[in-house]
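DM from R.C. (forwarded with permission)

"hey, sorry to bug you on a friday — could you get me a structure for this? deadline for the figure draft is monday and I only need the backbone to look sensible"
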Amino acid sequence: MTSHDLNRPGLGILFVCVAVFAISINDMLIKLLSGGYPLHEIIAFRAGIGLLFSLVLVQLEGGWRILRTSTPGLHLVRGLLVVTANMAFYAAVAVIPLAEATALFFVAPLFITLLSIPLLGEKVGLFRLGAVFVGFLGVVLMQRPWDSSGLEVARIVLLLPVFAALTYALMQVMTRKLGVTSQASAMAVYIQGIFLIVSVGFFVVAGDGRFAERTDNESLQFLFKAWVWPKPADLLVLLGLGTCSGVIGYCLSAAYRVANAATVAPFEYLGLPLAILWGWLFFSEWPALPVWAGCALIVGAGLVVFLREQQRARPMGWRQRTARR
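My reply, with the result:
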């Protein structure tokens, strides 16, 4: 694979936009199911269907041989990071409004920009660092530190999407490092497989719901409630989740393989208006004023980082980084 194949920002942006739309549908469907099923059951069904979808893509991209890898340990760490990000985020989604959880999660591209400095060797100037700082101020604003009594949930729940963003950012930066030698469909298979293994592990340890009975925390109850067989109508929803999962796994891996992380990441903000729309349509949710203000700071910071990257487009620098791999 040539350096040109791995420096296609337009294709990377297209991949990430498709992934973001699928993510927004995925999040909305999981929130719909959260009242009746444990998270590990939802993830198990989703991962099983997504794995089948990804295996079909493996055949289209080169067959079983592309599943071989010389870095299994890195793929394992990457998979565990994305599983952790998902579990933390969806534990929050079950309790807080979809738009609020999504907005807090959208600090991830800012984390990616920061992590690309030590892990990818990318240069980030003071202007972009200042924009990142403003974005994190938006996160602080959305945490509402002045309002300890008016919050409807524990503050730790509001921090779950931020923690999910950090682990997700680490995963995406690792995707960039692994992408030179791993096909997108192969990386999707690894992740779906790890999702399935972790979900089965949850079922073995907590599938009877005994841990959920010991806590009043709604996020923990969602993680540990008892496994129940899905209703026929919900099976269709789970099928949709699995399809979304396959699309997400492939498109995100492909996006960060073929384009620079700082170029692709800001387009993930398209998920924010979609989350607001689904929250309003399906859950009668509307963001509070601090959420709107925090969103403005985070999205504004992300756009500034993106525009600055485009102005400083450095194809030679990118090729040099690729050669060093």
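R.C.: lifesaver. Residues 314-325 have pLDDT under 50 and may be disordered.
me: no worries. The CA atoms of residues 135 and 249 lie 26 Å apart.
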